[in-house]
Design a protein that fits this description.
Blueprint (H helix, E strand, L loop, with lengths): L1 H30 L3 H11 L20 H12 L3 H16 L7 E3 L5 E3 L3 H4 L7 H20 L3 E7 L2 H4 L16 H9 L6 E3 L1 H8 L16 H15 L11 E7 L2 H6 L7 E6 L6 E3 L9 E5 L8 E5 L8 H7 L2 E5 L16 E7 L30 E10 L3 E9 L10 E7 L4 E5 L20 E7 L8 E9 L4 E10 L1
Parallel strand pairs: 3-4, 3-11, 9-10, 9-11
Antiparallel strand pairs: 1-2, 5-6, 7-8, 8-10, 12-13, 13-16, 14-15, 14-17, 17-18
Helix pairs in contact: 6-8, 9-10
Length: 495
């Protein structure tokens, strides 16, 4: 009898244990039903979480990918996901000095680095010599265009954090004894008249002159001090008279949440020190301004006696310099849109045009052509070889303002130097006009079949006023090589 009672008690404990286990396992699934939790997770990760898939496609057919999509949905939405990821990251970083987040490198003394900058840090030249020459050509072409509109031009490259602070990178990552993309581009531009600023030449010496870091320890970007140093260097290239804020005082206080820290520890709210400057700005944001991450930001400073205006194409590093520049120009426009679009320069005058881009994104300077009317070309050389192969050719309308012509080609030789790419447009009457094309491989628009020709891309925008309504046009591409001049038809269209 006692044995039977004991067995029943054991079974009850087993049942209770099983029920508790099931309940604990069910909690993450129940938490998926709370929308506010899913929204918080999405905000912490700075990405769009997977959506609940449908069993049917829009056309009513069965969604054959439902299983994979549902797995992705559950993976993104189960309860306490961020808390568990935070615990996992802390254990790995504290015990093994390794990162649980593929895009974050754990450095020394609490410094964090962005994984996509590692190729630059180890001096792995991911851009070929031909690609570097393409970028030089494109910058020269863009400078010629902006100067033809009466504006000064500057390309400013902001160095990655580990270029300025290599001493905190982990010892297992070691640079090779060769030049990387930034050094190769800087060397290639020497001897040209391109207005170019490698901000590593300014920021590396400056870090030893400042009592506090000029980049955030837990973020990919420069801090207020680094941005101020960068502003001074850029303004020195484009404007004679400007304020450098030399006597501005600052206080240091915890005020910045690092993006790398948030990626690694999504539920943590730890703040990093920031240098808060005692500055008064008189400019005002125009239109709807939400944050420094807006695609387009316009500022107006009516206290400026000068009528100078600025057009800046920038990335996330540009956020830190917007207040400084906006105070010095009566009108300033900042665009994060890609491709760089120059509609405004057709109707407005600008004192200066700045292209600001971080070191890790240099390759983008040969991946999309700036949007403006392609310059006319005269004396197009005669074609001497028909051995060029067109691997991709596209003709698209661009907002009704331009016809975008782009593609890729393959030729027996590798062009070097500043050779030109010409596109000739001929109507049915035989009348033709030729344009210069940017050396750009439109990465997001060309099929992967042409990936082996990524350094042999062409792209340009033909203004619609150059076209006659109802006219049929044929297009020919001419490549000026080292030993031969190649040519091939690339398409036709009717307006």
């Amino acid at each position: 009898m006692k044995k039977q009672k004991k067995m029943k008690a054991v079974k009850k404990w087993h049942l209770a244990y099983c029920l508790a286990f099931v309940a604990v396992c069910a909690v993450p699934s129940v938490m998926m039903l709370i929308p506010s939790k899913a929204k918080a997770d999405s905000s912490a990760e700075k990405r769009v979480l997977a959506k609940m898939p449908s069993l049917q496609n829009e056309d009513g057919s069965l969604n054959e990918d439902f299983g994979d999509e549902f797995t992705a949905y559950v993976s993104d939405h189960f309860g306490f996901r961020q808390e568990l990821a935070d615990i996992d990251s802390r254990m790995k970083s504290k015990l093994f000095q390794t990162s649980s987040e593929k895009d974050v490198i754990i450095g020394k003394d609490g410094w964090l680095y962005y994984t996509p900058t590692q190729d630059d840090y180890v001096n792995n030249p991911t851009i070929s010599e031909h690609g570097i020459q393409n970028i030089v050509y494109n910058l020269k072409m863009l400078q010629d265009y902006t100067q033809s509109k009466g504006a000064k031009f500057l390309t400013a490259i902001v160095p990655n954090k580990n270029t300025v602070y290599p001493e905190y990178m982990p010892d297992y990552v070691r640079p090779a004894q060769q030049n990387g993309n930034l050094e190769n581009l800087s060397n290639a531009i020497q001897g040209t008249d391109i207005s170019f600023l490698n901000l590593a030449d300014v920021l590396i010496p400056a870090k030893g002159e400042n009592p506090t870091p000029i980049y955030y320890q837990t973020d990919t970007h420069w801090n207020n001090t680094g941005a101020l140093i960068g502003y001074r260097a850029m303004m020195g290239k484009i404007k004679t008279l400007y304020s450098n804020y030399e006597n501005s005082n600052y206080v240091t206080e915890p005020a910045h949440e690092g993006d790398l820290w948030k990626m690694l520890y999504p539920t943590s709210e730890e703040l990093e020190n920031e240098n808060i400057y005692d500055m008064e700005f008189s400019f005002e944001y125009q239109g709807l301004y939400r944050s420094a991450d807006d695609i387009l930001i316009t500022t107006l400073n009516t206290s400026q006696e000068s009528t100078d205006s600025l057009l800046m194409f920038r990335d996330s590093f540009g956020a830190g310099i917007i207040p400084y520049f906006s105070e010095q120009f009566r009108l300033a426009k900042y665009s994060r849109a890609v491709p760089y679009t120059f509609y405004d320069m057709e109707s407005e005058e600008y004192h200066a045009v700045i292209v600001e881009i971080v070191e890790r994104n240099i390759s983008r300077l040969q991946e999309s052509a700036p949007v403006h009317g392609a310059p006319y070309a005269e004396n197009v050389p005669e074609i001497s070889s028909d051995s060029m192969k067109i691997t991709s050719a596209s003709i698209e309308d661009f907002n009704g303002a331009y016809v975008h012509v782009f593609g890729a080609f393959d030729i027996p030789e590798t062009p070097t130097g500043m050779e030109h790419y010409f596109v000739t447009m001929t109507d049915d009457s035989g009348k033709s006009v030729s344009y210069l094309a940017y050396h750009c491989y439109e990465k997001d628009k060309i099929s992967e079949d042409s990936a082996n020709c990524k350094d042999n891309g062409y792209s340009l925008y033909i203004p619609t006023p150059d076209l006659s309504s109802g006219q049929h046009y044929s297009l020919t591409l001419t490549i000026q090589g080292n030993d031969s001049c190649y040519g091939c038809a690339i398409g036709e269209f009717t307006t």
